[in-house]
Amino acid sequence: MSAGRGQAGGGPPQNCQKVFIQRDYSEGTVVKFHTRFPTELESRLDRQLFEYTINQLNNYFAEAERASCSTYCESCLYCLTGYLISICTESHYEKCLRKVAKFVSEQNDRVYKPRGLLLTDPTTRGLRLIEISVLDRPAS
User: Fold this and answer.
1) Which parts of the sequence belong to the Golgin subfamily A member 7/ERF4 domain (predicted)?
2) What whole-number distance in Å separates Cα of residue 125 and Cα of residue 47?
3) Phi/psi at 118 (nearest 5 deg)?
């Protein structure tokens, strides 16, 4: 379901340099990424733009994992219907993942692609990392 999410044309080319932003496990296993600015991007991207992107992604994932009365009721409804309700509706988590995909696509169009970079949706990497491809630098 998440294949190709956030990338037009199937994703970045395989033969370019990649910069990886790792998960931050300092607060447990919640989905959160490090905001440490990678040195490989210094000449290409402003630190504030990078931090905005990462912080916004972290906020979307925090929203997806936030427990509330409605998410509790949603979970109960899923269990009571044997998950058949998923045919008709989208879960809170799926809605948040759709927001992530839209945000990644918008950031690529506005910020990353004009600078020769491509941000990959973290859901396509199993939420393990964020991949930023430097499109005009060959892989080393």
Assistant:
1) 19-131
2) 23
3) -140, 120
